[in-house]
Amino acid sequence: MTSVARSLPFPTEVIVGDKLSISIGPQHPGSGHFRIIVVLEGDIVSEAIPDPGYVHRGAEKMCEFRNFVQNVPMLERTTLPDANGIIFPYILAVEELMGIQAPPRAQYLRIISAELNRIVSHLYWLGIYGVFLGHSTMFLWPMGDRELFMDLIQTVGGTRVTPSYIIPGGARNDLPDNFKDKALKAFGYFERRLKEYDRIFFSNPLVLKRSQGVGVLKRSEAIALGITGPNLRGSGLKSDTRKDEPYSMYETLDFDIPSYPDGDCWARGMVRFHELYWSMQIIKQAVEKMPSGPFRSRLPLLTARAPAGEAVARTEAARGCMSYYVVSDGTSKPYRVRVSVPSFRNMIGIPYLLKGGHLADVPAIYWSLDYWPVEADK
Amino acid sequence: MSLVRGVFVAFVTALRQLFRRRMTLRYPEEKLEIEGEGFQYDAKKAIGIPGYKGRHILFLDKCTGCQLCSIACENIADCIEMVTVEKKDFPAWVVPKQLAAAATFPQNKKSLWPQIDFGSCVFCGFCVDACPFDALYMTNEYELTSYTKEGLIFTPTQLAIPPKEVGKTVKFQVEEMEAYHG
Ligand code: SF4
Ligand code: SF4
To answer: Which class would CATH give A68-299?
Structure first.
């Protein structure tokens, strides 16, 4: 009997002619829970084959056995550093299905939690990107400063990761009284700190040599491949769901979408670097603009039903455009949930960008894409 | 920026860090101070009260044994099991004072209580949201290690005990140019 599930076998012949195949990953050196089979000719990559699926858990199928609210803690777990960001579209889709709308205060609370998670996610990325470029200070600093924002997430949502903070119908709890002071203090420190990040890393000539002109993705190619998120903006296209199709209350906030025309590893990094700054500005404005009032509608937690129908929602998560398609058959559990994750859409860039480059550039290019295997495998 | 100048600037920037206080929390000698009393839920107003989501606390004078917490957890982590514990089986010091003389818990005739397996709990707090009698809250306790898997199953008696003192705690502090624990 032949197995239906197909996984890429490692080539039986490691050396064919003057080509050598090596496997990068799946258990670390450099790629997380994900394997790239790299075929080398000397030092040049002649082919790169991504092999996803190592951490596939069947999140979409699991959704069908839980009710609409119980799905929240489970779906958050696909991207731990961006838990609030990736659950956002699910919440919007379920609300559309149920025909309810979150109170305005809740919509701002969601923006705050999602932007905090964007900062945490980008700092986590910056740490790993830094260390794979051989800059270990850039590993320690972001990982340390991430603590500021983890602390803020804990103040709001109760846990450092996966707070299950936003649910259909609103947010679980209000901001604690000291949140504003704490946040402003942290942002003041971190804005000054970003200048140091720039001096030590983003305009450090050694890092520029390592990242400029490496893994260039042209604007037209990025569009053709369907790349999304900061990677697309790093190729010069100002495309962001928060601006293009404003959801929640993003239309009331004033922020900029950073974009760089170069399309190389450095440009993709700079986009995220500027997003750190803009996320803080968004949170500052949201805290100011937030109306007082209710923040949670009285939705029965255990028995909330959605009338039969379907709904789609998309938002901008830390890694790009994230969308959910939820079908209900009128019971308290979804009939089908389809998740479209940004990491999977960005994976197509990996073989494309690695080809023709040096083996030593593989980690730089791979990490500049901020690929998160668990998110892509679901 | 020339190569030499750029490297020099980066070097000086990194050097400054040496004179700042350390971010590192020296766990377990010192522990982080957590603000608040833990995540709680006001069932009347149907809103959560922000706080840390640590190990749960069960109030024996409020829980009616209605099982709603267990049903809420059913498809999340399946870690709440309802168990029967008679009043006489609780150690006298966990029983609230005003009920010390009574033969049974008046609000919980069947003596059914939740028992939580912290080996699989994900600390989402939806059981707290589900409790209609404010009988289940969360606390700031997060040190829940055990040598066995069974040791992580907290019986109603263990859940009723308030969190233990953690010893020396430090605050996470942010200043102009440094963030540190201390
Ligand atoms: S906090 Fe733990 S016990 Fe409560 S619902 Fe979540 S997983 Fe279950
Ligand atoms: S803790 Fe609350 S929800 Fe659980 S059985 Fe007791 S009263 Fe019911």
So the answer is: mainly alpha
